[in-house]
Specification:
12 strands; Rossmann fold; binds iron/sulfur cluster; 377 residues; alpha/beta; 16 helices; five-stranded parallel sheet; four-stranded parallel sheet
């Protein structure tokens, strides 16, 4: 197939779904790591296309959702400093910290600006040389190279007023932590497509080897996901789990050497705090020694007393985002879902974020979807 609409072909999708049903003999549970996959699965009605014996759970792959409350508190505290401009991706401004949001800080007079890329934030810094411009750097291996590019560019152009609060996170270490927790039994994992474009497929080898769990990397169209599920079911049925790429037009086993080089130039691996999971060893990226002066946490440490990053997070009462991010619960199991918590009035980050599982369920799930209705493709 050459064109993207071929990956959305309804007849091909239904044929593949029949194939999956033909060789699926037992109940299994799969997890999609990536928030983009959660939305694609819901949008195309993949859960209704595959046999009911295949249960799907979402994982911790929404960058806004996994940002810890204590890290949001840091961003809100920075917004309150005189002369500071906070730049951030759109979804972040509505996510609740312990006491406030960036949106509330903006309403109270803080200069908080939504940007579409970290390079936009750098341009704001260049246009406002007397102000300190802080970019809230969230995301996974997918966004880390572009954030690294803004830092190295600021270094080369001696931009003195640009800072990054690096809350970047790494995918394989949190998968290891989740599987070691053992709270949810999984038979297979739908591997993240965009992250794997950067890091390749080899960092996931520990999943089949140490945990006996099938693993296949997927793209984001209906046929990509069905092809991935087909590969996972075949692995599970054969009893020989392994790492496969079901997104060969995007992912190579070795990843993208240039992007990895850029990441390694500006960052070093450090522990990171994940909402709902806690501090996971060596699962984050901090700005390294060479570029330390761009590190917002270090630059403003004298002006603010940041809470320790491993401080327990205080979630909104009744919100089960933590459980959802660990795959322990689905959004439908949260008592606030669709009533007290909606996309218009979100309680937790999984409803705030456009990549959140609760937002996806709210947007696409209907009572009819609990039946095998043949999907929406
Ligand atoms: S439905 Fe709302 S309150 Fe419940 S887990 Fe999702 S975001 Fe939290």
């Amino acid at each position: 197939m050459k064109f993207i609409d071929e990956y959305q072909n309804s007849e091909l999708a239904k044929g593949l779904a029949r194939e999956i049903a033909n060789h699926s003999t037992k109940p299994i549970r799969l997890m999609e790591f990536c928030g983009g996959h959660t939305h694609a699965i819901m949008r195309y009605g993949i859960r209704q296309l595959v046999p009911r014996t295949i249960e799907m759970r979402s994982g911790p792959g929404c960058p806004v959702c996994v940002t810890a409350t204590s890290d949001l508190d840091k961003a809100i505290a920075l917004a309150g400093l005189p002369g500071v401009i906070i730049t951030t991706f759109g979804d972040m401004i509505r996510v609740p910290g312990s006491y406030s949001t960036l949106q509330q800080a903006k309403a109270e007079g803080a200069d908080v600006r939504v940007v579409y890329s970290t390079l936009d934030a750098l341009e704001i810094a260049k246009a406002n040389p007397k102000r300190s411009v802080v970019f809230i750097g969230i995301g996974f291996e997918t966004t880390a190279p572009t954030i690294a590019a803004s830092i190295t560019k600021a270094y080369q152009e001696t931009v003195e007023n640009f800072y990054v609060l690096s809350l970047l996170k790494l995918t394989p270490p949190v998968m290891r932590a989740l599987l070691n927790l053992g709270e949810v039994k999984l038979d297979g994992i739908i591997g993240p497509g965009h992250v794997s474009v950067i890091i390749g497929s080899s960092p996931y080898e520990f999943i089949p080897k140490n945990h006996n769990i099938a693993f296949a990397i997927s793209g984001f169209e209906a046929l990509d996901i069905l092809l991935c599920i087909d590969k996972l079911v075949r692995q599970i049925e054969s009893g020989h789990p392994k790492v496969e790429i079901a997104y060969s037009r995007g992912v190579r086993p070795e990843g993208n050497a240039k992007a990895l080089e850029l990441m390694n130039e500006a960052f070093e691996v450090d522990d990171a705090n994940w909402r709902g999971i806690g501090v996971v060893s060596q699962s984050g990226l901090k700005i390294n020694e060479k570029y330390r002066r761009f590190d917002a946490e270090k630059a403003f440490a004298g002006l603010l007393r940041f809470a320790p990053s491993d401080e327990p997070a205080s979630e909104s009462k009744g919100c089960r985002c933590g459980d959802i991010l660990r795959g322990v619960a689905t959004p439908l199991e949260c008592k606030l879902f669709g009533g007290l918590c909606t996309p218009e009035n979100p309680v937790g980050p999984c409803m705030v974020s456009s990549e959140g599982a609760c937002a996806a369920y709210c947007q696409y799930e209907s009572p009819r979807d609990s039946e095998n209705s043949g999907g929406r493709i």
